[in-house]
Amino acid sequence: MSTRLKKLLALSLSISVAATGLFNDIGAKNADAAVVAKQNKNSRYINFGGKGTLKIGSKAKGVAENNAYFFNNHISSVKVSKKNKYLKAQDGVLYSKNMKILYYYPAMKQNKKFTIPSTVTRVVRYAFANNNFLEQLNMGKNVKYVGTKAFSECSRLKNITWKCKAQTIPAGCFEKCHSLKNIKLGDNVKNIKTGAFKQCSSLNRIYIPRGVSEIEDYAFSGAGKEFFVAGNNIDYSSNKGVLFTKDMSGLVAYPGTKQGGYILPDTVDDICAGAFSNSVGLTEITFGKNIYAVDMGWFDKCANLKRINMPPELQSVDSYVEYSGLESLEKVTLSESNKYFSIYDDTLYSKDYKTLYVMPFGKSSLELAPQVESIVYLDMINDRYKNVLTKNSFSEINISSQNQYFVTVDGVLYDKDITKIMLLPGKMTSYKMPATVNDITGILNGFFGETEDNIANNSLSDISVEKENLLYVSKDGVLFSKDMNKLYVYPQEKKGNYTLPDETTLMDMFAFTEARGLTGLTISENCDRIYMDISGCATLKKITVKDGVDTFRIKAAETLNISSLKLGKDVSDICLQGNLNKAHNTVISSATKGKDAVEVLTGIQAAAGESDEEIEFLTFKDMSRYVEFMGYRFK
């Protein structure tokens, strides 16, 4: 096994664990899990993946702190040799020998309740992550340290009692624990780090104890119905369920599920980053008189926000920031006496109407100001990798024929010469491209950010092109280059199975993004290299890659439902980034058994924020182990 393969399995994530060493006597023969890579004595870390019981021999000294989060393993229990001097398993949970460190609570361990033993002083990062059975957790009274994302994405976790010695709730500690309803924090808690309770959408009353002196940005993004702060806390206060600094000059966090509109107190002159993000219950916001600058990033993923009433003395708006999820916004208002901005058709412009800053994406139709020259939103989507909203509810877009910069044809916005698609109405089901178009940025699918909420979205089921167009053509409602060599866009609502034409050798990476009607996809033999983002392909069940394809790399932002992935005999480069199936029973088959070398791009490292690196697999068996290591079946 190559050195680079070992690096894949170690992830090289700068993990520092006391007495960390090697599982040097663990192989597939010693575990019911699909695979545990065997390492030589010089390796520092080992990771495990697969399904079943993980059996650890006598020589293993430690465990990397990332298995539960970065690997899709379905480990249900851990067993450790009694001869092991460094590790111990109790009730299927992995600890250090002296029971002071809790390393791993199996993702498939099915107990509903768990109390961390009183001997434990340290819970490593990701220790409980992705467990879907645990409902009640009691922190051991002597726990002093809890690692990043230790309990993240425990989907059924409902109740937590945090009566321990740990003073810091780390970043992402309970992130995406969607069922979490109650948490009791002790008075010794001092710090709540970024994203600690992010998207804990079932939390009701969030109590901030007297000792808390630091709450970082996004700590409660999308969490809770109301905040309540201990009266003797010297740094924070609450008012009408909203979390503020003690003097109410700064708004720290707005409850994610608090319903209705909100009027910001005039005492507030500062709003923390992420204060309103993921606030799905917020329908209207009215700013107070002491806010002079508005950052649209404050409202990231406020999916039901319909109206923004801008502050009367507004002086600046930052619309160049990353934000998404404002598809319900119908109206922006502002005092007519404002010196810097104006309103036209519920849309925020500069005072002279030349620059459009905030677009009401939830309106059924949009009329642009006759004087407009620049649209900030369009400047952003020209960079397809910016995390900016692309969903809209427009059935048509209109603008005066006298405008010198833009024109609309059949409700679609173009540049004045009709050479560039600027903005496509989100409710349009069929689109015919004019012969003059040579820039299709406005119709391309795109993925903007880290979650499915940021996927470009439209309602197209058919695309056609005027035959006089010199650059583009359509076939069966799909958009190609004129020579059919490259596939650009597969309509998101087009239904059924699809096979790439034989003459097609290239495709846009986002061509099939959010293809909600696609059920099966066959990649033709002439597509040598495939790079696909299949995020949002909710009905896609089967992918077949024909012989002739060398590189196959796919990415999904959310869990899909793919049951079968068939690889042709010439695939020598494979990347599986994301969860292909909720039940994790995707069958991956390959005809590459006779190949001498297989290279794999480490999608795991990319997901972890590390740079991509090619890993050489010297044998077919190594490739099959990689696939099983990711938790899938291989045959």
Automatic annotation (TrEMBL):
Pfam families: LRR_5. Residues 1-19 form the signal peptide. The keyword Signal applies. The keyword Signal applies. Keywords: Signal. This is Leucine-rich repeat domain-containing protein. It comes from the Bacteria. It comes from Butyribacter intestini.
